[in-house]
Amino acid sequence: MIKKLVIVFSLLGLLSCQPDDKFMGVAAGAAGRYIVTAYIDAGDTLFSLQPGSTGYKLGINKIDIRNFTVELTARDSDQLAMKITYWQNGIQSIFNKQVSVQLTNSVYQFSLSKNTTVTAYDGSVGRFSGFFYERTIGGEFRIPGSGASATSTSNDIIIVAQPGR
Questions:
Q1: Which of 58, 19, 21, 17 is nearest to 39 (CA)?
Q2: How confident is the model over 141-165, as pLDDT tens digits?
Q3: If you average pLDDT over residues 14-35, what whole number do you get?
Q4: Are 56 and 48 in contact, with CB atoms under 8 Å apart?
Q5: Among candidates 100, 95, 128, 130, which has minimal Cα distance to 114?
Q6: Residues near 95 by Cβ (< 8 Å), separated by ≥ 6?
Q7: Residue 158: which of 57, 47, 17, 14 has the closest Cα?
Q8: pTM value surpassing 0.85
Q9: Taking a C-beta distance cutoff of 8 angstroms, is the pair 120, 137 a contact?
Q10: How far, in Å, CA of 162 to CA of 165, rounded?
Q11: Of 68, 80, 123, 130, which sits with the fewest C-beta atoms within 10 Å of its C-beta?
């Protein structure tokens, strides 16, 4: 009798399993953690990391930031949550946004919703390279800087990142 119940419950359990599309869709291919290797504001590289023998070493850091990452999490089969995180002067800052994603040739191409104040947007992750690139003109995200970057009126921001290990 117990053996029959175990079989019945096992079958019911298997039948109730539904595939989770957000882990099988295009968004899952781009999801992951990326280490920012360049942050460029109005054509001025304010932050960069250089590849070293044991990981990345600091290159340029005009804005005194550390632990700069981009994390992409699948929210639906074609939707990603993007979380940009960095530390500046001992304070952690986090910026979140949602992007749509589609696979075009060998590139996961991102797009923003129609209800955005961004003038131009280009975001992507290479399917095989894992290379993350984002250029935003007129967006909300900008790291406060010092010197010339603090007085810049441009909102042309480029972020380049590599897959985290």
A1: 58
A2: 889 875 445 555 668 999 999 999 6
A3: 71
A4: no
A5: 100
A6: 83, 84, 85, 140, 141
A7: 47
A8: no
A9: yes
A10: 9
A11: 130
